[in-house]
Amino acid sequence: MSKTLIRGAKVLGGEPQDVLIDGTVIEAVGSGLSAEGAEVVEAGGKVLLPGLVDLHTHLREPGREDSETVLTGTRAAASGGYTSVFAMANTFPVADTAGVVEQVWRLGQQYGYCDVQPIGAVTVGLEGAKLAELGAMHESAAGVTVFSDDGKCVHDAQIMRRALEYVKAFGGVIAQHAQEPRLTEGAEMNEGVVSAELGLGGWPAVAEESIIARDVLLAEHVGSRVHICHLSTAGSVEIVRWAKSRGIQVTAEVTPHHLLLTDELVRTYNPVYKVNPPLRTERDVMALREALADGTIDIVATDHAPHPHEDKDCEWAAAAMGMVGLETALSVVQETMVDTGLLDWAGVADRMSFAPARIGRAAGHGRPVSAGEPANLTLVDTAYRGPVDPAGFASRSRNTPYEGRELPGRVTHTWLRGKATLVDGKLT
Amino acid sequence: MQRHLISAADLSRDDAVLILDTAEEMARVADRPIKKLPTLRGRTVVNLFFEDSTRTRISFEAAEKRLSADVINFSAKGSSVSKGESLKDTAQTLEAMGVDAVVIRHGASGAPYRLATSGWIDAAVINAGDGTHQHPTQALLDAFTMRRRLVGRDAGLGQDLAGKRITIVGDVLHSRVARSNVDLLHTLGAEVTLVAPPTLLPVGVETWPCAVSYDLDSTLPKSDAVMMLRVQRERMNAAFFPTEREYSRRYGLDGERMAKMPEHAIVMHPGPMVRGMEITAEVADSGRCTVVEQVANGVSIRMAVLYLLLGGNEPAQTRTEEK
Q1: For burial by CB atoms within 10 Å, which of A219, A340, B54, B207 has the most?
Q2: Rg (CA), chain B
Q3: Nearest CA among A201, A148, A150, A143 for reference residue A173
């Protein structure tokens, strides 16, 4: 295979260096590396990161190919600088058997834009009643290690306990969508000052926090690890911080949109802002940023949730919940964390690559940018700033809350095991 | 005036007073032998009702017809909506038929706002009640009723409700009437107190421009008007209160409680009343209860709103022009 020399890149935001890719691996990192026989990419001071890893993506295939497919979703991922995405289980049929997870995994391999690591359902049909065949999904070609009923909460405490215990046998982790169902019946947005005024059903913070509190205690009791999906409130941060201080094996993710947007936007009744968990308050946003900076929240995960146009071009109550995020995640993180001085690029590499790969056991991803490592790399033009234009998205869906908003940073190149999937901002 | 009427909170004091004054003029039409004005001749108004509401629909229809508008009634039941047509397509279909204004009642909060702001249609949009959000013409007819009774029919012209103490009792959480009234009454200078069990008040109510009390008896002597909201019996199944009887005992208005109100104070209800629940028959049928007047006033208010939004020649200020 061919060689590529990335010349003058700030590796993890450090001093400019050259990085030589040979075949699928990084051959050397240093200054003044020879370009002989190599295609040269002039980085010109752009930041080089390990390929990003998204622990929370909805690829919609099988079942909702009108909103996204494995192909369009992995192209969107490559555009956003990702080399590995974890595909959530709430497809049709649900990814609760070895057959479905293998199909999704194989499609990812076949297209080659981004590795797809399927997440298995915790319970059959996401119904919260009966454990799915977790072991079979783990032993399948897909090698599932992360299990989640995302979209629904594993609300039955006994089922949750058993799931946490069971996956210890093969190093699995349960990723919980923390939402107490009875407290969120008819919920449409964050419960608070804005929902009171708008007359929309409230989704109280306590519905998330009570489940997280329960689950960290369960994880402690049975000695398992638990991962909290899309943590969204200041109170949740405090619970996770407390749990970590007790040595409980808990990890947590935050979405880009919860780092930037608040429920004030719902005053427009524009369903592009309808998402689950809902956009919270300014106070929550600030607590989430701080928690991501200090490591209480381990990772950024997109919760990329594509929906067709008609599911958002309607009244609030009728609209689907969710936002696309793969192609804007890094920009939002730069805006909220880097440009605010909360996190440096090494920190971004940790929260968006090293840590998610570690939590999900994604082999070959989230590795240091050094000689001998797989060449999964992302080159970012951090000096760029411009408006978000959904017309240019690779995703099949356009339900972004950032349309027209100026954001910093643009991924120009992505390499998956040495193969360029994105060159000068264009998919290969 | 603005082009649409979506929320009572969008009205400035001067807008609101203009509507009330215009409604007084409209009310005089109702006293004539021929109750009709040519103002909206040749204009088409559609009553787009996604939620059953006979009284509000008939009230709008009467107002539209008295202004000589062509009226189309559209009910979602049995229409293409029940076959899955979207709000957007329904609205565009109607507009293609040459509709000048859409009066919309919808179960989803914000549906009229979406209709007015999404670029789907150009027609004026009048909110006839959306979910648990707003019902601005109800708030206007309530304010109209209060001004007539508490200030005077002629003395009230040009006046607001400054200093009037208004108590709103009942299921505030699920009530678009309460939200609209708090907004409008505050704009008109009244002092509003909400009375309800804590379960029927929204989280966040503390930021509203009104006082909140859990105790009806102590609030009644300090009220110039007491508005009783309908409480649906089903709410008790969702644990908002233990039983119908307990609700009535603590928050219902009976003759004994009514006697604690000042002599001049009135009892209001947006209808439909649940007799025996939030209000006893004795109170509902008493001379202090304005329920029937409110219905009559509703037609005048809706005539005024349609006139000012669609046909009015009166110069009126919008909030932004004011500033």
Answers
A1: A219
A2: 19
A3: A148
**Greatest alpha-carbon span in chain B:** 56
| Chain B CB contacts of A313 below 8 Å | 86, 88, 118
Minimal C-alpha gap between B249 and chain A (Å)? 27
- Residue of A197, A206, A265 to mutate, interface with B, max B Cβ within 10 Å: A197
The pTM assigned to this predicted structure is: 0.94
Q: What is the pLDDT of residues B234-293, one digit of tens each?
A: 787 889 999 999 999 999 999 999 999 999 999 999 999 999 999 999 999 999 999 999
Report which of A156, A166, A155 is spatially closest to residue A147, judged by C-alpha positions.
A166
**Same structural domain, A35 and A59:** no
| Range of the structural domain that residue A16 is part of | 3-47+373-384+406-427
Mean pLDDT (whole number) for B4-15 = 97
What class does CATH assign to B8-135+295-322? alpha beta
Mean pLDDT confidence for A160-179: 98
The dihedral region occupied by B191, where left means phi > 0, alpha psi between -120 and 50, and beta the remainder, is beta
Instruction: Judge whether A311 counts as a catalytic residue.
Output: no
- For the segment B155-181, the average pLDDT, to the nearest whole number, is 97
Closest CA to A108 of A176, A59, A170: A59
Cβ separation B114–A315 shorter than 8 A: yes
Residue A396 lies in a domain: no
What sign results for the dihedral spanned by CA atoms B266, B268, B273, B279?
negative
Give the C-alpha separation, B254 to B292, whole Å: 18
Model ipTM value: 0.90
Residues B196 and A147: their CA atoms lie apart, in Å, by 45
User: Where does the pLDDT of residue B321 fall: very low under 50, low under 70, confident under 90, or very high at 90 and above?
Assistant: very low
Q: Are residues A28 and A61 in the same domain?
A: no
CA atoms of B266 and B143, how far apart (whole Å): 12
CATH number, domain of A320, equals 3.20.20.140
